[in-house]
């Protein structure tokens, strides 16, 4: 019988899969009815409901992202709620094709129940990620269309 992962262990598994490019494996860390809020997402939906929608989003990233992410300065803080952790870290972001690199700051507040993420509030530096991924023109166009 396997032991249920703690919120800290779930975050560590999430970050490890992201930094090793295993995006298609991320869905298994989320509850069927999970909610993910990307608070500073500049365009598009800022709230994703359900594992299936998250898996679709992760598959798109796996298929199209030119970025390599390496995490450093990782700090995971326990809270007074045993289901909640707050994680802070920086990504060293490298564009695989251009070789350009950037730093991008991140914070996630994860609620984990029975070893699965049920709610996440994600605060990522989307501007730095758009610049690193060569998607700044598309971001500007999308912002102008709103």
TrEMBL record:
A Pfam family assignment: SnoaL_2
What species does this protein belong to? Kitasatospora aburaviensis
Protein name, UniProt field: Nuclear transport factor 2 family protein
Q: InterPro entries per the record?
A: NTF2-like_dom_sf (IPR032710), SnoaL-like (IPR037401)
The SnoaL-like domain, residue ranges: 12-119
Stretches assigned to coiled coil: none
